[in-house]
Amino acid sequence: xxxxxxxxxxxxxxxxxxxxxxxxxxxxxxxxxxxxxxxxxxxxxxxxxxxxxxxxxxxxxxxxxxxxxxxxxxxxxxxxxxxxxxxxxxxxxxxxxxxxxxxxxxxxxxxxxxxxxxxxxxxxxxxxxxxxxxxxxxxxxxxxxxxxxxxxxxxxxxxxxxxxxxxxxxxxxxxxxxxxxxxxxxxxxxxxxxxxxxxxxxxxxxxxxxxxxxxxxxxxxxxxxxxxxxxxxxxxxxxxxxxxxxxxxxxxxxxxxxxxxxxxxxxxxxxxxxxxxxxxxxxxxxxxxxxxxxxxxxxxxxxxxxxxxxxxxxxxxxxxxxxxxxxxxxxxxxxxxxxxxxxxxxxxxxxxxxxxxxxxxxxxxxxxxxxxxxxxxxxxxxxxxxxxxxxxxxxxxxxxxxxxxxxxxxxxxxxxxxxxxxxxxxxxxxxxxxxxxxxxxxxxxxxxxxxxxxxxxxxxxxxxxxxxxxxxxxxxxxxxxxxxxxxxxxxxxxxxxxxxxxxxxxxxxxxxxxxxxxxxxxxxxxxxxxxxxxxxxxxxxxxxxxxxxxxxxxxxxxxxxxxxxxxxxxxxxxxxxxxxxxxxxxxxxxxxxxxxxxxxxxxxxxxxxxxxxxxxxxxxxxxxxxxxxxxxxx
Length: 634
What we know:
The chain is mainly beta. The protein is built from seven helices and 42 strands.
C-alpha cells in the first residue's frame, strides 16, 4: 500500500532535524549514510574556533535516536544562537590584578642645616609609579614652606591642602613601573627655649629615610625622635666635608610620619666668673638593728659657668658605699677639717643641671637602746642647699626624735611624689645645712606565750621524749628560741612542725650551752612571729634489770620534763602523756606540780606524735602542768 505525505511533512522528514552543538561537551551524532563533518585544521598560532555542525537523522530512526541513553536536546535556531553567544561571553580569560597602590615613595634622604632662625632642608625622594594615569603622592610638610621642587631639572607640580599638606602631582603615560627622582628644598622655623632648641618636621614617609643634621657649632648634643640608628660624622675620610666648627649627625628614622630634633647649644659661660649653684636634696634614712643606711640624692642647678667636678662632705664615722650617676667618671675621699670630702670627677662638665646619689652606712653596737645621729650630706661650694629628710625605722624597733635643730616636721602628703608612697616614721624639711637630727631607738621586746605537748615513751631499754612546743610571739619577731632539757639525754632532732593555724619555724642550727648541757639554743634562719611550732626529740638508754626481764620487782624511773625557756617568755603551760607497751605495768610515783587529766584534753588542739613515733604503745597516764616546777617518777 502506498502512503502519501503532504509536501510540508515530506520536506520535514527528508530534511531531518538540524542540531547545533552549543558546547564542545555534547557528543556528535551522524546520519546512517553520512560520515562525520570535516574539521579544518587550525594553523599554528591561530586560536581554535567553534564551528556549527548540521546533523541529519532519518525519519524512521527518530525513536531509536531520541530514546537511547545520552540523548540530546533539540531547540529552534534562534534560541540556540542566544545560548551560543552567552557561552562565548562566559569563557572570557580572568582579569589580571594590578598593584595594590598606584605609587609610593621608596627612599628619602634629608640634609638639614640649622641657620639663624630656621632649618633649611634639601631632600631627595625616589618615587615609583606603578599604574598608568595621574597620581597624587603625599609629601606632608604641612608646617614647612617648600622653596623649590624639581623633577629632572624641571619644575614639579605641587598642590597644597590645609588639612594634609603638600602633594606631588604626576602623570604616567605608559604601562609598567617607573622610578622618578624628586628634589625638594623646604624651610621651617624652630622653637627656642633656654638651653634647648627644637623642631618637628611632618616629612614624607618612606621605608628608607636618612637624615643628615648640620649645626654650625662644635660639641652640640643632638636628640632625634624617633631614632633607629645614629652616629656622628667622621672628621676625615668619608666625612671630609665636615667642617671643624660644626656638629654633624647621621640618623635613620624609618617610615615615621614626623621627625623631632632638639639640640643644646654649647654654653660658653661667664669668662672669669664662678658658677652659680643651688642644690635640692632628698635624703632617705633607714634605721635597722645594728646599722643605719642612708641614700641622698643631690640635684644641682648650675648657671653662669660649668662644673667639671663636685665636692660633697659627709661625717667621718660614715662608710661611703657608692657615688652614683651616669656622668660620674670617678670619685675620691679625703679627710678635711674633721669631715670626709668626696671629690667627684665628671665625664662631661655640667652646664645646667647634674644629679648625684651618695650611699652611706654606719654600723653600731647591738644594744636594747641607742641614739642615732642622722648624717648630714653637704654639697661644698654651693650658694644654697635645701631639701627633705625622711627616716624609716625597722619593725621591732621603737623610735623617738630627741633633737631636730634646723628642721621642720612635715606631713607625708607634702613629700615629693617619689617619696610619698613609702610609710616613713619621720619626715622633715630643711632650708640650709648643717642640721641636727637625733633619733633614739629602743628594741621592742617580744611577748611570748607557749603551750607544749610532752609525749614520753617508756620501753624496757629506752626512754624517748617528744616535745611539741607552740609559740605565740607578739609585738616583735625573734631569731632564737631556748629550751631546758635533761643533760643525760641525747638530741635526736630539732625541727619545725606545722599544725592547723600553726606555722613551722625555720631551724638553722641548734646547740647545747651552759654548764651541764641543760640549755638548748635554737637559731632560726627566718624571723618567727605569730603562732609557730617547734618539735624536739630526746632519747636515753635504760639499763634497769627489772624492766629487761620479769623479776617481779618494780623499778623507779624518774621522768624529766623539758620546758620552754627565755627572758621573753611570759607564760608557759603544757600537757604530758606517758606511753608504754602492753608488757609494762606503769604506776605514778611522785607527781609534784602536775595535775592528772584525760587523754582527750591532753591532745586537744595539738599535733600528737604517738601514732607515727610510738607504734603500738598505749597511753597510760596524762598530766597537765603550769609555770611551777614539776617532778614525776614512775
